Amino acid sequence: MRRNKVDSKVEKQLITAMIVSKEFLGQAISAIDVKLIGAEHLQIVAKWCIKYFEKYGKAPGKYIESMYYKWSEKGNAKEEIVEAVHDLLEQFSDDYDEGILNVPYLLDSLGEYLTFQKLEKTKEDLEDALLDGKKEAAENAILNYSTVNVGMGAGTDPVNDDDVWARAYAESQKPLFKFKSKDANRFFSNAFSRDGLIAILAPEKRGKTFWCVEFMMRALMNRCTVALFEVGDMSESQIYRRLGCRVSKRPQFQHQCGNIEVPRRIFRNDAGEIDIETATVNCSKMAAEKSSKEAMKKFVRSCGLPPKLQNIKISCHPNMSINVAGISGILDMWELEKDFIPDIVIIDYPDILDYEPGTGNMAERDKINTRWKALRRLSQERHNLVIVPTQADTDSYDAEFMNMKNFTEDKRKLSHVTGMLGLCQKEEEKEKGLMRLNWVVLREDEFVSSRCLHVAQCLPLARAFCCAVL
Q1: Which of 12, 83, 104, 298 could lock onto 383 through a cystine, CB 3.0 to 4.6 A?
Q2: pLDDT one-digit tens code per residue, 138-155
Q3: At what angle do helices 79-91 and 8-20 cross, to 10 degrees?
Q4: Residue ranges of domains in the chain
Q5: CA nearest to 391, candidates 409, 374, 378
Q6: What are the residues whose beta carbons fall under 8 Å from the beta carbon of 26, sequence distance 6 or more?
Q7: What is the assigned CATH class of domain 8-171?
Q8: Among the CATH numbers 3.90.550.10, 1.10.443.10, 3.30.565.10, 3.40.50.300, which is that of 174-469?
Q9: Confidence (pTM)
């Protein structure tokens, strides 16, 4: 008796998506052949989800438990199947919801899974026919095979394929996180969406890592899953101390304790100049182990993030010790071992990554270009947003705006990103706690490099963004 090869992790991910995600079901339902799902108890749950969607136009969610009890009470199924379904649903957590699933990535996984299962079935039918000497049955097994038309690489028809339009305008294609500031949301527009590669361009020590942490926190506030790779710019203890400062609202150093001015509002005065309205906060203690640990847990609860699920992973590596291929391997491992699929990947920072495999004989600029193509591929294959700081040239030190001439190493990195965000700051602005952000390039929206978002900061509390005005 043959045993089907079953990837339980992938199947659990896909069944979870069917239970909780209307978007996933709506785009996958036409491709799903329940017979290709490896185990009988999984087929049963999949049928419930499909039937529920066809009737109500949404995913069953928590109602899946009621469906199970109605089915089990009939007593028609084998005891071992009932137990298997029970165990599956027991593992399913109420903490899952549609808002914390990377649906485009799961659709790709579905396509790969169904294709493999279909190939396995075709192989078995072909072997059985050949063993029995049935030439016509063997030929039919080959002729009856067809590709699974879902996920990346599937051919689509914009005239007759409704699913392709559903994917293009799905909820998952909207910005992954936003700000409370209308001006900030207008400035960033749709830049922080899936499949995007956003670079942060600035000279040394202008606050690129502060912004990486800020974007990470904003993403968590919007219930996103984030992977942060610190690859040589800061040590593990340094990045955790900065994170602890951010969540505990306590300064990192003793000399920063006391009265701290925290910006509450930034505005243009009657003279058209930027003014900041602040509130004085007294911080008598530095961030420490206990306060940071407790503050992080409190922050996660305040965001409504599921405590049982991992929403953030931080991986630290020495300078030049890992490349994009290595990062992709770690993401594969996290998915396999932890069911961790990030919506956002932050790499701080690519300029000090190791070179990609197979680039040893390339010229230096071509090695750099291959690295940035690999970063772009990472965002496309995993359907996540990739955020990466990068160093600007020496002309940027006193430049009023970052522009396309301020790149370092290879200008082709400008071609691979979907957006490059400049951090602009003069000495007098730094003293006031002001920074200006501008778009150096931006693919999906109109932009003018001289049009800036003015941001008020409070770096003693690791707040790269407090408030903003255009």
Answers
A1: 104
A2: 888 888 887 777 766 666
A3: 70
A4: 8-171, 174-469
A5: 409
A6: 53, 163, 166
A7: mainly alpha
A8: 3.40.50.300
A9: 0.85
